[in-house]
């Protein structure tokens, strides 16, 4: 049911293995690689944020540039991110109290230490999903929809998210859940995620193209300083990349090559490495992102091994 996607090799010994499902599409949309059960129901977690941003945009939310990118992202809580979230809330005639995501520390270490030293506490606006929540509030406000219940699965905006998810993944929603940030989460498949990211990457002249363009042009707002998603889009022009919790990721190249996966144990440490390795084999020039295609295993602060593609991925690479 699951394939060996990655291994952790320490001092010559395979210490851990990551199993999962992975689907890769070639530029023409044909299946180039299918490992594991790519049609099993998965919870896409934050990998689905570009689709949620698309739903907000098509609902009439006036989102462009960094605002649209942060709606599609999981930001690291830096000051520039907060400025954009505050601007979205102000345009909705709301403030931070309207956000229904949990209060949290920023993921950016420097920002977190600075705030703690200055005596600040956790806040909702610093939580990595606040951009998405602010965009949802703005979409609700411009339509006259209730902003107090914007996370209710039957809310008009969430029904639009459901419809957009089904449309871009090419399959009905498989399961209804609640994400870690409190927003409705619609189950799909690894196959569906790969197709959705390919659709974003090749879209032209429509709202999906606007989402992809915002992410490509403003990758800092999709993640932040040192964030893997941001780095991939900065270093490999034309890519669209979004990872999520519990080992889910979707990445697509500028010509439509796409890869999506779910790591069964939920650890994301190999996902970017695998996505770039597979895209490179499909013809995407990922050489500028070589630092993200090799993840060292440390011992005493120095490399003593590495995280590597697993046996099933290596077999496919060897056959290319």
Provide a quick synopsis of the model.
This protein is of the alpha+beta class.
Overview of this structure, please?
This protein has 320 residues and is α+β, with helices and mostly antiparallel strands. 37% of the residues lie in helices and 19% in strands. The protein has eleven helices and ten strands. Strands 1, 2, 3, 6, 7, 8, 9 and 10 form an eight-stranded antiparallel beta sheet that branches. It has a two-stranded antiparallel sheet with strand order 4-5. A hairpin with a 2-residue loop joins strand 9 (295-299) and strand 10. Helix 1 runs parallel beside helix 5 (130-143) and helix 1 (49-58) packs across helix 8. The longest helix has 14 residues, at 130-143. It is globular. The two termini are 23 Å apart. The model has no long low-confidence stretch (mean pLDDT 97).
Structural class: alpha+beta
Helix percentage: 25-40%
How does the major sheet shape up? 8 strands, antiparallel
Bulk shape: globular
Distance between the termini: 23 Å
Weakly predicted, low-confidence segments: none
Number of helices: 11
| β-strand amount | 15-25%
Q: Strand tally, please?
A: 10
How would you state the average pLDDT, rounded?
A: 97
How much is the radius of gyration in Å?
Answer: 19 Å
Run of helices and strands: EEEHHHHHHEEHHHEEEHEEH
